[in-house]
Amino acid sequence: MRHRPYRTLLLWIIWMLAATGVYFGFYQDAGLWNFLAHDKTRITWIILAFFVFGLASSLALSIALTKESLAARQIEEDVRDKGLIGFETTSESRAVARYFQSLKLAMDSNSKPDAEALLNVELAVFQRMSRSIEVAGNLLITLGLIGTVMGLTLTLTGLTSSLEALGHDQEQLLEGLRKAMAGMGTAFYTTLLGAILGGVLLRVFAQITEQGVEGLFDRTMRICLVYCSADFKPSLERDIRFLDAEMASLGERVKFLQSAFSASRRSMEEFREEVVNLRGLSQEERTSLLETIEMNRQAYMLMRQETRLMKNLNRTFWQRCKDVLRFKPPRTRPPEE
């Protein structure tokens, strides 16, 4: 029961280890990697590229299903006592969380949704990925058959060239035989890779992920039917759960207010202590403070008087300047002859 959320990922790892061991055990002496390095058609490289893509997709899907199963287990613990009314989602990135959140929104709007259809919609992306892995396996088989036809074509071309050079050109004969053997190798290895990688490995990976999607669907639907179905129709139990949820929410708010009041009270106590400390200053400090205030006042008065004197001096100076500028000397008559 505890390890059920990890079932899909564990099966994927077990099958990957078993397939790797069997594959390398049977074909490590067949010269497969040497052929891949000298394959002129490159059809085997295309087959390996599609296999790596399908393998990575199946691993990503297995990890995603494992995370969804863990989220479903957490949701089951949440709705077991509180029901759908007390469900609060923590992550919108999980399909099962979005599913129960949609059910709760539908319940709040007094509507009864189709739970199975809604779950199919939420898990549709995982189903499409699983089918894509199976399609990749079928595509590898098809590529293997195409490689077989290409290899046979190369073989016939090489044999034709050898037959034409028979008896008069030894080098052309050997070159044709080499092409024929290379074509047979292409036909053999492409068929082998397509059948093993696509027809066996990827199909099993697709089956593992498909079983994981179906298991997630069954578990989520079971949680909905067992713990949440009573909340879709008006009943005394639904009303009681609703009241319990409201009381729990009210209790949380009351706790928050209590903590806020406690913080405010502590702040007021600290402020009162500061006021008491200010009142507890000694008489000398008060006297020194009053003297400082009086000195500042006298300095202000002196500066004010000095400012007035400066204004008067400036006014007198400018007035003298104006008088000088306005002064005109008297006109003198020329002396008489």
Give helix and strand order, one letter per element, not per position.
Answer: HHHHHHHHH
Largest sheet: none
Structural class: mainly alpha
The outline comes out as elongated
Considering DSSP H and I runs of 4 or more, what fraction of the residues is helical?
over 70%
- How far do the termini sit from each other? 146 Å
What percentage of the residues does DSSP assign to strands (E)? under 5%
What is the CA-based Rg, rounded?
47 Å
Mean pLDDT: 76
**Number of E-type strands:** 0
Q: What keyword list fits this structure?
A:
single chain; mainly alpha; 9 helices
What does this molecule look like?
It is a single chain. This protein is mainly alpha-helical and 337 residues long. It has a domain at 4-232. It is built from nine helices and no strands. The protein has helices spanning 7-27, 32-37, 43-82, 95-108, 115-122, 124-164, 170-228, 236-279, 283-326. Helix 5 runs antiparallel to helix 7 (170-228) and helix 6 runs antiparallel to helix 7 (170-228). The longest helix is centred in the middle third of the chain and has 59 residues, at 170-228. The radius of gyration is 47 Å and the shape is elongated. The protein starts with 6 loop residues before the first helix and ends in an 11-residue tail after the last helix.
